[in-house]
């Protein structure tokens, strides 16, 4: 059945149901016009000679009587076990026209007691469903399995601008080009410039990805289609693909426009895996259709696809290829400054007391995403209303924060004060080592804002130039930087935490490759035992060890690795012990500001550190940053 047939088929069902309802309604209204009377009343009227005609059936007598010149249809129920012959004799005595009826009322009873209620329920359900789905899913309805269910925003009503999106300056900057293209496509067409078809917004839930996408549409004044990846994938194979096709058809008809696909990872996971639910085939078809559609349309058309995900690492590489989602924009949780701005945006509509200190509120909400802050503002307003206040005051905000924190703690998304302190020292440890060893790339940014799945904080370094060959001292310094976090924790808190696991894994991997692949161990000598997958530096997963390594060699490898790691750890610990004062000072500032740019960090370090620094050049922009969590 194709779409049209399906639709027609459903329309017939609706007509049939309407017909049934109509017939039943007539029956019902007729039943109403006949008066039901008691049997005794019937006998009285018979005696009075009012009864004109009757029809006798198994269980009832129906007929008409005339009273004061008006005739009325009546119905009465026969008394069980009475002698019908007596009644007949009576009727004859009063010369009433009568006849018998054996037709059962089965059909009508069934109609009234079964079909009518069912028809009513079905109709009700149908219209309700249609109403609901047309509200949440645009043009669709119960009939539209293959329709995309994309939500289309009304441009005049739901308009969102960049002003409504607080912070996220870098992301906005990157999206400006797209807005400009949507506004003046001719300019780009004339130059033959290639405009991206797809942009991937990467960030935790509630950080404002949807909002940002809507704001792009708002700024460019183009229609905005929104759909979630999970809405594509249904139980039935082929439905998702049909929905993708439908979505693109709608979008192309409305170009220029923005299509926003939320949770793209639900369709875009790496293909070829075996899923327990058996839903893979459907998902793959959907994904293939999406890729085909993206490749298929003319980039000059002005359809820009924005997609959001929290887990870019699970995406099928095919999605990220040029001509598809070849641009990624990070949408991070806000730092303290960002939170203040978000609060300000949401407080525009709220009447609040002058005593409300936004800085303080921002400081009290570390780890909150934009949606959490929107929540806080709303809760505070509700609380104020409940207490009958005319404006929202600080106490309402404090209470609202406590409530929202409760919810977030249950989802374990909030760090304790102690944990944040540990994370701050850990990150400054990385950054410090990166700045003080000779060969490490300069620090680009440090943050204690949780990011991704495991990382609680992050230190980014930007290489000054592209590197194709890396020397042994450089590798040693990389290991040192990776160990800086753990060393700082150990020195400041006297204990180590699980937070350094991925650092240690990376360091261990580097050490192993130095010994096994790069011939950088004196004891083992210049040999490469490799067979460990793609030989890129920094590759993190190892394949099975070559079988040809002898027991003795394996022992030497282990010893050399251990040696390498321990020597470096020792070096890092010495360095951090020496600079402990600076470390703690900077960690405190980082805790307060949550993010430190490379320059700020270097300045702070310069002020406090013990020995003169190694000179660093400015990082060149546009290079892939190196990240230690
Ligand atoms: P995501 O799509 O990343 O999950 P949303 O865009 O749906 O997040 O954000 C949910 C809500 O949180 C938004 O509607 C908005 O009210 C609020 N919000 C999130 N980020 C911001 C921000 N940067 N500025 C203003 N409000 C924000
Ligand atoms: Zn780390």
Compose a concise summary of this entry.
The protein has helices at residues 3-33, 39-48, 84-93, 106-136, 169-183, 185-191, 209-220, 229-232, 239-254, 265-268, 280-296, 336-347, 358-363, 370-386, 394-410, 417-436, 472-493, 501-516, 551-578, 580-593, 598-608, and strands at residues 35-36, 51-56, 60-67, 70-77, 97-100, 151-152, 198-202, 224-228, 257-262, 303-309, 327-330, 443-447, 458-461, 595-597, 626-628. It has 629 residues and is of the alpha/beta class.
Q: How would you sum up this structure, described in words?
A:
By secondary structure, this protein is α/β, with parallel strands linked by helices. It has helices at residues 3-33, 39-48, 84-93, 106-136, 169-183, 185-191, 209-220, 229-232, 239-254, 265-268, 280-296, 336-347, 358-363, 370-386, 394-410, 417-436, 472-493, 501-516, 551-578, 580-593, 598-608; strands spanning 35-36, 51-56, 60-67, 70-77, 97-100, 151-152, 198-202, 224-228, 257-262, 303-309, 327-330, 443-447, 458-461, 595-597, 626-628. The protein folds into five domains: 3-29 and 107-144; 35-103, 2-Layer Sandwich (Signal recognition particle alu RNA binding heterodimer, srp9/1), CATH 3.30.720; 151-271 and 281-331, Rossmann fold (3-Layer(aba) Sandwich); 336-404, Helicase, Ruva Protein, domain 3 (Orthogonal Bundle), CATH 1.10.8; 417-628, Peptidase M41 (Methane Monooxygenase Hydroxylase, Chain G, domain 1, Up-down Bundle), CATH 1.20.58. 51% of the residues lie in helices and 11% in strands. A hairpin with a 3-residue loop joins strand 2 and strand 3 (60-67). Helix 1 (3-33) packs across helix 4 (106-136) and helix 9 runs parallel beside helix 11. The longest helix has 31 residues, at 3-33. The protein is elongated. Bound molecules: adenosine-5'-diphosphate and zinc ion. Zinc ion binds next to helix 16. Zinc ion binds at residues 426, 430, 485, 500, 503, 628-629.
């Amino acid at each position: 059945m194709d779409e049209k047939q399906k639709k027609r088929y459903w329309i017939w069902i609706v007509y049939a149901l309407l017909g049934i309802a109509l017939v039943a309604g007539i029956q019902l209204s007729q039943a109403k016009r006949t008066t039901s009377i008691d049997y005794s009343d019937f006998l009285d009227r018979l005696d009075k000679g009012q009864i004109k005609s009757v029809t006798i059936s198994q269980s009832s007598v129906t007929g008409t009587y005339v009273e004061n010149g008006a005739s009325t249809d009546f119905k009465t129920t026969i008394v069980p076990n009475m002698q019908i012959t007596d009644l007949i004799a009576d009727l004859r005595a009063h010369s009433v026209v009568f006849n018998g009826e054996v037709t059962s009322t089965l059909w009508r009873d069934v109609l009234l007691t079964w079909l009518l209620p069912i028809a009513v329920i079905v109709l009700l359900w149908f219209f309700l469903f249609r109403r609901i789905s047309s509200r949440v899913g645009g043009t669709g309805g119960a009939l539209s399995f293959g329709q995309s269910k994309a939500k289309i925003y009304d441009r005049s009503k739901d308009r969102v601008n960049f002003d409504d999106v607080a912070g996220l300056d870098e992301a906005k900057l990157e999206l400006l080009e797209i807005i400009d293209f949507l506004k003046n496509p001719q300019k780009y067409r004339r130059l033959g410039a290639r405009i991206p078809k797809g942009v991937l917004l990467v960030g935790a839930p509630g950080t404002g990805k949807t909002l940002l996408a809507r704001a792009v549409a708002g700024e460019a004044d183009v229609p905005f289609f929104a759909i979630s990846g999970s809405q594509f994938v249904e139980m039935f194979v082929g439905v998702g693909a049909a929905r993708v096709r439908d979505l693109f058809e709608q979008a192309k008809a409305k170009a220029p426009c923005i299509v926003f696909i939320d949770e793209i990872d639900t369709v875009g996971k790496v293909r070829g895996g075996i899923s327990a639910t058996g839903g893979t085939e459907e998902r793959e078809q959907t994904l293939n259709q999406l890729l085909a559609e993206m490749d298929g349309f003319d980039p000059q058309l002005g359809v820009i696809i924005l997609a959001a995900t929290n887990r870019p690492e699970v995406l099928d590489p095919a999605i990220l290829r040029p001509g598809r989602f070849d641009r990624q924009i990070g949408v991070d949780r806000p730092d303290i400054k960002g939170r203040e701005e978000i609060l300000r945006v949401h407080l525009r509509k709220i009447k609040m007391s002058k005593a409300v200190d936004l800085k303080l509120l921002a400081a009290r909400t570390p780890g909150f995403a934009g949606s959490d802050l929107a929540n806080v503002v709303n809760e505070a307003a509700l609380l104020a209303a409940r207490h009958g206040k005319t404006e929202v005051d600080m106490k309402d905000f404090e209470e609202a924060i406590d409530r929202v924190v409760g919810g977030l703690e249950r989802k374990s998304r909030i760090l304790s004060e102690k944990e944040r302190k540990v994370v701050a020292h850990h990150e400054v440890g990385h950054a410090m080592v990166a700045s003080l060893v000779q060969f490490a790339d300069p620090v680009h940014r440090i943050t204690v804002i949780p990011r991704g799945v495991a990382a609680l904080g992050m230190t980014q370094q930007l290489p000054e130039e592209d590197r194709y060959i890396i020397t042994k001292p450089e590798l040693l310094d990389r290991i040192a930087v990776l160990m800086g976090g753990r060393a700082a924790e150990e020195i400041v808190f006297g204990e180590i935490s699980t937070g350094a696991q991925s650092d240690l894994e990376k360091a261990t991997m580097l050490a192993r490759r130095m010994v096994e692949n790069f011939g950088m161990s004196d004891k083992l000598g210049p040999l490469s035992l490799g067979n460990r997958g793609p030989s890129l530096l920094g590759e993190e997963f190892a394949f099975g060890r070559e079988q040809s390594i002898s027991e003795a060699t394996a022992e030497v490898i282990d010893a050399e690795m251990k040696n390498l790691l321990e020597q470096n750890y020792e070096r890092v610990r010495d360095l951090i012990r020496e600079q402990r004062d600076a470390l703690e000072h900077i960690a405190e500032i980082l805790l307060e500001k949550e993010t430190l740019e490379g320059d700020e960090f270097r300045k702070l370090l310069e002020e406090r550190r013990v020995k003169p620094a190694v000179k660093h050049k400015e990082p060149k922009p546009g290079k892939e940053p190196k990240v230690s969590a």
